[in-house]
Amino acid sequence: MRITLSVIKADIGSIGGHIKPSQALIARVKEFVEEEGKKKGLIEDFYVSHTGDDIAILMSHKRGEGNADVHKLAWDAFRAGTEVAKAQGLYGAGQDLLKDAFSGNVKGMGPAVAEMEFEERPNEPFLFFAADKTEPGAFNLPLYLAFADPMYCAGLILSPSMAQGFKFTIMDVNYTEGDRIIELNAPEELYDIAALLRDNERFVVEKIHSRRTGEIAVSASTTRLHNIAGKYVGKDDPVMLVRVQGDFPATGEVLSAFSIGHYVAGFMRGSHNGPLMPVKLNSTTSFFDGPPVISCAAFCVHNGKLTEAVDCFDHPFWDYIRMRVAEKALEIRRQGFSGPAMLHYSELEYGGIVEKMKKLEERFRVRS
Ligand code: MG
Fold it and tell me: Rounded to two decimals, what is the model's pTM?
């Protein structure tokens, strides 16, 4: 059976600042997708969850990527949720819904989207990742390590089905006229891939395919909100779908790189660097409006029906990792605004600091 997985997420309001959406908001979104999507046969199945202040709708259906009806379902569900957010006085109600009227595809309208269409395998395990207080480039390093580095993905040397490696599709997210992409093959072009993926702000992995079968392995969201709104309106918290096992890395190989807690952009006001902490499903944010968090739900899908979600980071091992990542967060926070603790000026150019710099510019003088 040919199936499409679509995950669409947005921040449409949260309690107490940026902590989490309310139960009533989440219930309204669930109810809307159930009534207008599943019961009407538009989608096969769905799962609604939150990571920090973002609410995500994962859907399985037979309508292919970029389907206007499926996108409209998610858009309308977020609008229904926004009504609840406004009624409850939630912070940032509807903040990621940047446009007034739906125009056929939620891409470019605020929400983040990751989609993949494939022929279901007899057993079809996949992972759904959602991050908060960070940006799409946060997935660059974990994806590079899971799909191109045998130091993290043992399957690259142990499994004949992965011996030919993977094709990376990488997007230049600073280009706003359209989708500017490049396709590079691992392992032959490993250094080229690394040269791009080191720059999390500009180059972002959009898709990864198996080179042996051509099958899709990864689809990640690439939206940068400030490129849509023309100003800072929140961080571009990404979502990602990863098929695992068989021709793809094992679940544990994909999870393995998240043990690093690598430093990513985001954190307080989307303006700092902080370590990416793997957290349990439906976690909140806290310290310094962070730290940047990543959650992972594992599923199998069969004939479009999803199993229950299994929480990949709910295991004693990850408790230890969280402690280590907390130490990394404290360490970089000790230096406040200084140097790499806060993002470079070019990444803050849409914020209030621009005004401050203009005023200071006038007071500068060159000593004669
Ligand atoms: Mg968020």
Answer: 0.96
